[in-house]
Amino acid sequence: MARITIHDLRAMKGRGEKIVMLTAYDYSMARLLDEVGIPVLLVGDSVGMVVLGYETTLPVTVEEMLHHVKAVVRGSRRAHVVADMPFLSYHTSPEEAVRHAGRFLKEGGAQSVKLEGGREIVPIVRRLVQAGIPVMGHVGLTPQAIHQLGGYRVQGRSREAALGLLQDAMALEEAGAYALILEAIPAPLARAITERVRIPTIGIGAGPWCDGQVQVIHDLLGLYPDLAPKHTKRYARLGEAIREAVMAYAREVQEGIFPGPEQSHAMDEAVLAEVLALAEAS
Ligand code: KIV
Question: Looking at 35, 55, 116, 183, which residue is catalytic?
Fold first, then answer.
């Protein structure tokens, strides 16, 4: 089965078909999401916070990302898999960026990479695209710049900031990015960007007028125990379901109910008696 390409995503924008994107970090979840037809899976560096327990996304390494990208690629057949490039894996030089991004495609099996940043990363985006590596941009709230931004807050509210974001989006399109994540920006600004670029925009906390939406799967399923951001919506409470299930398991083990006859393998009593007799004799 052929995977969804960057051209398919562009065509979806052309048809006005919303692009659904979710994060995935492991084989089982990738299988589930792929089987229900989610077209784009992002192996986000949010893995650092929701799976690995880091306080921010900054400590995530290329090796850690590769480990998760490979699992998601193994679990999916049709989805376009985007590998998030972690902090400082693309900032130091275009050559370093190509080397790391290349690993996500060559070793990881991803179809594209995602980079956070605006006009300042244009030379890097150009170099990656020249090397045949499709790039998804990410502007607005860029969590890798958390210390510079001073917190996880909405971006682009002032005239200067909004103009800067519009210029970032247009510069990234010009540099060859095939799509853009717009994170935590006012909805009307996201609409203006979406109308001005030909590439698809995928929003997260950027209102309803983007060409698609992305969410962190743990937020959507109620799996992440910490405070859920305003832009997310809980479609399930799996955290509670997991807690109840494991408590029921623990209770049954303690009370000798689990494993029951259905979970136990039978054995011919005569064979066992023979074995015990042999053991006694030896
Ligand atoms: O790392 C991530 O999951 C992301 C999305 C929130 C867009 O960058």
Answer: 183
Let me know: does 124 contact 94? Beta carbons within 8 Å. yes
Cα 278 to ligand 1 centre (Å): 62
What average pLDDT does the segment 16-24 reach?
98
User: Are 44 and 155 members of one domain?
Assistant: yes
pLDDT per residue over 226-275, tens digit each?
Answer: 777 889 999 999 999 999 999 999 999 999 999 999 999 999 999 999 99
CA distance 86 to 153: 20
pTM of the shown model: 0.95
Q: Cβ(44) to ligand 1 under 6 A?
A: yes
Closest atom of ligand 1 relative to the 143 alpha carbon: 8
- 1 occurs within a structural domain: no
| Sequence-separated (6 or more) residues with CB below 8 Å from residue 14 | none
d(CA 21, CA 81): 10
